Amino acid sequence: MKQLLRPLILLASALILSACATTFSSQVSVFQEWPANQGKSYIVERAPAQENNPEYKFYEEELRRQLDAKGFQPVATGAAPQVKVSIAYGSNLSEVQFTGFGHPALYDPFWNLHFRRGYFYRPYYFATDPYFPLRASDLNLRRYYLHQLEINITDAVTNKKLADIRASSEQLSPQISLYMPDLIEAALLGFPQKNGSTTQVELPSKK
Fold first, then answer.
1. What are the 10-residue block averages of pLDDT along the chain, 207 residues in total?
2. Where is the signal peptide, in residue numbers (predicted)?
């Protein structure tokens, strides 16, 4: 019985986790006062530290591409822009998780894997089942990283802030570059969004 059940559980677990990996989940918070007749010709403002940063310039190109898709237009040569757009981003270690074999937070999608996980937890039905003894080799160590993006849009004439959009996503990889296109897309989805809203956005993964 033990030899039959363990491979089946591992196979089911792999299928569930691979299904989860096909979508990109992020949380987006929006604060905006976007006038109905607001023009969309723009320039992208860089912070001093971003001027000679190849990584930033790569993200800026993605930002421009997605702004253009939302109806924004790069300012024409010699013309005055109507809005200024800037971005800031960063990552930090969010959580270190030790989990035992068979933890439902790892293998059950109804536990909302992205937000709810347990620390070194042994379910009672495994703790008392001789077919599933917990061994050191059954423990998993996972590090989760919180990747964050902020997009600011201001009026180029008055410097009034028109939109402050923040997107974040928790992922296993520490490389924010893997997720920046998704973060930008999530942040701009449905622009201009409802003021004061915080939504959970699910996108098809681009990885």
1. 49 46 90 95 96 96 97 94 97 73 44 38 44 53 90 97 97 95 97 96 83
2. 1-21
